[in-house]
Amino acid sequence: MTLPQLMPLLAAAAIVPCPAPVKAQLDGLYRCQVARQELRGPIELKSQQGRFTDGLYQKLRRACGLDPASGRFVDFDLFSGTQVSTFGA
After folding, report:
1. What is the CA radius of gyration of the chain?
2. pTM to 2 decimals?
3. Residues with Cβ within 8 Å of residue 60, at least 6 apart in sequence
4. CA angle at residue 27 from 55 to 79, to 5 degrees?
5. Each residue of 12-41: pLDDT tens digit?
6. Residues 6+ apart with CB under 8 A from 51
7. Sign, Cα dihedral of 43, 47, 52, 53
8. How far from the centroid of its chain's Cα atoms is residue 88's Cα?
9. What's the pLDDT band for 44 if we cut at 50, 70, 90?
C-alpha cells in the first residue's frame, strides 16, 4: 500500500481513543516509574506483576536478576530506557 492509500487508515486510527484498560495499565506503570525514580537499588517488579503477561514478567524478572559479576546484567532502566548510571544526571 502506498502512503496516500494509508493516510485514511492512519487518520482513523489516530481518532480512536486508547481503550480504558490499556490506559489504566500504562498510567499505573508510569506512576510506579515516577515514584521510584529517586530510589536506588533493584527494580521491584513484583508490585507491577499484574501489568505484564506471565511470559514478559518472567523475562523481566530473569533480566533483573542477572549478576554483573557474570558479565551479563541489565544496565538500563527497563521502563525509561535510560542507562542506570544516568539517574544522577
Report:
1. 18
2. 0.56
3. 45, 52, 78
4. 55
5. 666 778 889 888 888 888 888 777 777 776
6. 25, 28, 29
7. positive
8. 20
9. confident
How far, in Å, are 45, 70, 84 from residue 42 at the CA level? 9, 17, 10
Exposure of 51 in the CB half-sphere (CA atoms within 13 A): 19
Distance from C-alpha of 72 to C-alpha of 56, rounded to nearest angstrom: 19
Q: What are the residues whose beta carbons fall under 8 Å from the beta carbon of 19, sequence distance 6 or more?
A: none
Q: State the pLDDT at residue 54.
A: 92
Q: What angle do CA 39, 40, 41 make, to 5 degrees?
A: 125
The alpha-helical segments, DSSP class H, found in 1-89 are: 3-15, 20-36, 54-64
Select from 63, 62, 89, 57 the least CA-distant residue to 76.
63
